[in-house]
């Protein structure tokens, strides 16, 4: 499975591509950070991110995107910009019929380091070790994008089993309700 990990942001947007193998084996295929000048108008910054993501999607053909879920921060303008960048990226994937999954920062940290409160240095160190990289990915946005992709590779089988179980439960509930209705 090819997973594109995205750490959305207006100033720096981390993009990565990994491929999962057997078990927990993962290979890094590409990583980059898209930068936009903070003085540029919002629509130009979103366009730059959109253009870069379009190029990545058309070049790498990922099976799924893993995007960091925006969480509440003290700085509302930062949250808004991050959410807008994530929306542009999710839209680009949807136009290509590519599944998108959102993971919280604590889910990603827990998956990669075993600690949902790990700091950036710990995440970077573990990403470097897991992917057997010769050098630490920099800046932190690159490491975060790789961590998101790793997280999804390791969580995807469980997420698929949960979705299948929920679908089966819904189907059984419908059958049960139909029987109850028929008896009345």
SSE map:
Layout: E1 2-7, E2 12-20, E3 26-35, H1 42-60, E4 64-68, H2 76-95, E5 99-103, H3 105-113, H4 120-130, H5 140-183
Helix pairs in contact: 1-2, 3-5, 4-5
Active site: 7, 68, 141
Catalytic activity: Endonucleolytic cleavage at a junction such as a reciprocal single-stranded crossover between two homologous DNA duplexes (Holliday junction)
Keywords: Cytoplasm, DNA damage, DNA recombination, DNA repair, DNA-binding, Endonuclease, Hydrolase, Magnesium, Metal-binding, Nuclease
Task: Give the end-to-end Cα distance, rounded to a whole number of Å.
Answer: 49 Å
Overall pLDDT, averaged?
92
How many domain units?
Answer: 1
Number of contiguous helices: 5
Structural class: alpha/beta
Name the strands of the widest sheet in spatial order: 3-2-1-4-5
Q: What CATH architecture do you see?
A: 2-Layer Sandwich
Show unreliable segments: none
CATH fold title: Nucleotidyltransferase, domain 5
CATH H-level superfamily title: Ribonuclease H-like superfamily/Ribonuclease H
Query: What is the share of helical residues?
Result: 55-70%
Rg, Å, rounded: 19 Å
Dominant shape: globular
* Share of β-strand residues: 15-25%
SSE string, helix = H, strand = E?
EEEHEHEHHH
Q: What is the number of beta strands?
A: 5
Largest sheet, if any? Answer: 5 strands, mixed
């Amino acid at each position: 499975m090819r997973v594109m990990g995205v750490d959305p942001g207006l100033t720096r947007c981390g993009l990565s591509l990994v491929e999962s193998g057997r078990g927990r084996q993962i290979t890094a295929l590409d990583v980059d950070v898209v930068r936009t000048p903070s003085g540029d108008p919002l629509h130009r910054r979103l366009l730059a991110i959109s253009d870069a993501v379009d190029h990545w999607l058309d070049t790498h053909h990922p099976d799924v995107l893993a995007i960091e879920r925006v969480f509440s921060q003290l700085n509302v303008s930062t949250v808004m910009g991050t959410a807008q960048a994530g929306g542009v990226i999710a839209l680009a994937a949807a136009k290509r019929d590519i599944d998108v999954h959102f993971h919280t920062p604590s889910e990603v940290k827990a998956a990669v380091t075993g600690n949902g409160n790990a700091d950036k240095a710990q995440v970077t160190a573990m990403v470097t070790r897991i992917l057997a990289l010769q050098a630490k990915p920099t800046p932190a946005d690159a490491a975060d994008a790789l961590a998101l992709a790793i997280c999804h590779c390791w969580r995807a089988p469980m997420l698929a089993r949960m979705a299948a179980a929920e679908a089966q439960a819904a189907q059984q509930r419908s059958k049960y309700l139909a029987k109850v209705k028929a008896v009345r």
